[in-house]
Design a protein that fits this description.
The structure is a homodimer. The first copy, chain A, is built from 13 helices and two strands. Chain A is mainly alpha-helical. In chain A, strands 1-2 form a two-stranded antiparallel sheet. In chain A, helix 5 packs across helix 8 and helix 10 crosses helix 13. The N terminus of chain A is likely disordered. The interface between A and B is large, with 39 and 39 residues.
Chain lengths: 338, 338
C-alpha cells in the first residue's frame, strides 16, 4: 500500500512537473507541430498557392528533376537531400561546375522550412514559393534560366498533363508556376518528433534527461532565438555580422541590419556542419559556441550535454515518399549544357 | 454467322502469327524476363553473393548515400539515377570536381544491368559486384578510397547494425562487402515490359505495329548484337574502334579486341543520349546510324520508324522504391573533401 502510494505521488508529481515544463516551454515561445492533421494543413498551407494532392505529387517530381538545371545534373534534392537531413552535409553548397557558394553559405535544410518566418540566410524571400525561384537560377547552383525551365517542362508531355491536372486545362506553365508547385511539395516536408508529442500533452514522450535538457535549453536562453514551431526560422535578434566573425565567413553580411536567419534545430543531428558558414561539425561544440557568442555564457559540460540530449529528441519522423519516377525527355527537351 | 466466322479466322490467324513471331524472336536469341518470381530470382541471383531482403534494403541505402564519395556529394544514384532511366542523361559522365569522364564515356543504365554478360563499356568487370567497386574509387567519379568508404560506413552505428543483420554479428565490414551489398540491390533493378509479357505468351501485350516493329528488328539484323534478356549486354561481335569513329570518342579503345559492350535497349526512350560516347540524341537517328555502321544497311524511314515503335514497348515497370532515409553521420564520420 505504501509502495503504491509513493508510486502515485511520484507519478503525479512528475505529471505536474511535466505540465509545468510544457507551460514553461510555451511561455518561452516554443510551439509544437500540431497533432491534428487539419490544424497542421492550415499552418503549412499558402492561401495564394493552396496545397492539393496533385500539386504536391507534381512538385515532388520537379524537386527531384535534375533537368531543371542547366547541366541536367543538379536538382533541388542535390543540395537539399531528403535522404539526408534535407541538406547536403558539406560546409558550403557546391553547384553548377562544382562552384562553391560564393558567400560560403551552408545549405539549410528544407525539412520544416515551411515554418520559417523568412527564407534564405539573409531572409530575403518571404516564403517557399519565392525561395524556390532562387537556387534554380543562381549561377553557382542550378544555373538555369526561367526559359530553360519552362522549355524543359513543356517539352515533356507527361509534365504538361500533370500541370493540366493540377491547374486546369488552360494552364499557362510559367517559371513562377513551376516554383510554386515545388513549394507546394516542400510545404509538406514536416517531421513531427517526440518533442512535439510532449508539448501536445503526451507527458512520457520525452525521457527525464530530455525534459531536463529542455529546461536547460529554456533557462540558458537558447529560446531567445530558437523559438516558434521551427525552433528557429526568424531573423536573429543579435547582429551576427558584428558578433560572429569567422575567417572564412566569405562576404556574407546578413540582412540590411547585419542579421542572419536562425536555423531550425529540428533534425539537428542530421544537418552538420553547423552555422550559416558550416564551420562547426560537432553539435556540442555548436551549442557551446552559440551560448558564448550570442548569449555571452560559458556553458558547463553538463549544461551542454543536457541541451544536446534534448536536441536529439527533435529528430522527427520524415514523410514516407516513393522514389519519384520522372517522365522521359523528348527530342524537344533542351540539351544539358556543361 | 459469316461475320463471326471471319472474326474467328482473323483472331486465330493473328494468334498463329503471334506465336510464330514469338518463336522467331526466340530463335533469334531474344529472351523475356521470366514471369515467375522464383525463376527470375534464380536468374538475378549470384551464388557467391546471394540476394537477401536485408542486403537489398541496406544496399539501396548505400546506393543513395553520397557520403561514400570523397566530396560527400556523389552517390551511385548521381550518375545512375533511378528516377530517370537509371543513368544521367548527359553525353559523358561528370563526377568529382565536375570532371568529365576522360574517355568521354556515357553512363550506362543500371536497370537490368544484372542481365549483362559483362560490365563497363569495355567489359572489364565480370559482374555487378566487381563493377560496383569501380566508380566509387574512380578519380573522375566518386573519387573515394576503400578506407574512406569503410571508415564512413563503420562510423555510423545504424549501418553497422544493418551489416550485422545482413551478414551476422561477426561481420567484418570491408570495401568489397560494401560493393557486394550495393550489387545485391542493383540485381533487383529489373523492369519487365509489355514485350516480356508478349514473349511469355500474352499475345495481345503488343500492338500490331509493335509486333511488326519486332519483326523488322529481327529481320534487319539488330538482334545480332541486341539479343538475350537485356537485348544487349554482351561484347559486340563488331569492332567498334575500327568501324565507329566519332571526333569526340576520346581515347576509348574498347576491350583488347577493340570491342565495345552492346548497351541494353530496355527503357531506351529514357536513356538518351545514345552510344558509348553519348553522341546521338534521337532514338530514330541512333537506330539508323547503327544499321549503317554495324550492319552496312541503309534503313528506310518506314523501317526505322517501325523499329522505334517496337523499342518503345521495351519501357518497363520499375520497382516501387521508398525514398531511402539515410542514417545520420557521427563525429567519427570522415569529413567531405572538396
Amino acid at each position: 500500500m505504501k509502495k503504491i502510494l509513493i508510486g502515485v505521488i511520484a507519478a503525479s508529481s512528475l505529471a505536474f512537473a511535466s505540465s509545468s515544463l510544457v507551460q514553461e516551454a510555451k511561455n518561452a515561445g516554443l510551439k509544437p507541430i500540431p497533432q491534428s492533421q487539419s490544424e497542421l494543413l492550415k499552418l503549412i498551407d499558402n492561401p495564394k498557392n493552396p496545397i492539393t494532392k496533385v500539386k504536391v505529387k507534381l512538385g515532388e517530381k520537379l524537386y527531384f528533376d535534375p533537368r531543371l538545371s542547366k547541366s541536367g545534373l543538379i536538382s533541388c534534392n542535390t543540395c537539399h537531400n531528403l535522404s539526408e537531413g534535407g541538406d547536403d552535409g558539406v560546409s558550403a553548397a557546391i553547384g553548377h561546375k562544382w562552384r562553391k557558394n560564393p558567400h560560403h553559405l551552408n545549405s539549410p535544410t528544407v525539412y520544416n522550412a515551411v515554418f520559417f518566418e523568412k527564407q534564405f540566410w539573409d531572409g530575403r524571400a518571404a516564403d517557399l514559393e519565392e525561395q524556390a525561384q532562387g537556387p534554380i537560377q543562381a549561377a553557382p547552383e542550378m544555373a538555369a534560366t526561367p526559359e530553360h525551365v519552362v522549355k524543359t517542362v513543356t517539352s515533356i508531355p507527361q509534365y504538361v498533363k500533370c500541370f493540366k491536372k493540377a491547374y486546369g486545362d488552360d494552364v499557362k506553365i510559367t517559371f513562377k508556376l513551376v516554383a510554386d508547385t515545388i513549394a507546394s511539395f516542400e510545404r509538406t516536408l514536416v517531421t513531427p518528433s517526440r518533442y512535439d508529442a510532449f508539448l501536445n500533452g503526451h507527458k512520457n514522450a520525452l525521457t527525464k534527461a530530455e525534459k531536463e535538457g529542455l529546461k536547460t535549453f529554456i533557462q540558458v536562453g537558447c529560446v531567445s532565438c530558437h523559438n516558434g514551431i521551427a525552433l528557429g526560422g526568424g531573423m536573429s535578434p543579435f547582429n551576427i555580422a558584428a558578433k560572429y566573425k569567422y575567417d572564412n565567413v566569405g562576404d556574407f553580411k546578413g540582412d540590411k541590419n547585419g542579421m542572419v536567419k536562425v536555423p531550425t534545430l529540428r533534425n539537428i543531428t542530421q544537418t552538420a556542419p553547423y552555422f550559416h558558414n558550416g564551420e562547426i561539425w560537432s553539435l556540442k561544440d555548436a551549442v557551446k559556441e552559440m551560448a558564448r557568442v550570442q548569449l555571452g555564457k560559458k556553458l558547463s559540460e553538463k549544461q551542454a550535454d543536457s541541451i544536446v540530449t534534448f536536441l536529439k529528441a527533435l529528430d522527427g519522423k520524415k514523410p514516407h515518399m516513393m522514389t519519384p519516377m520522372l517522365p522521359a525527355s523528348t527530342e524537344k527537351t533542351p540539351k544539358p549544357l556543361n
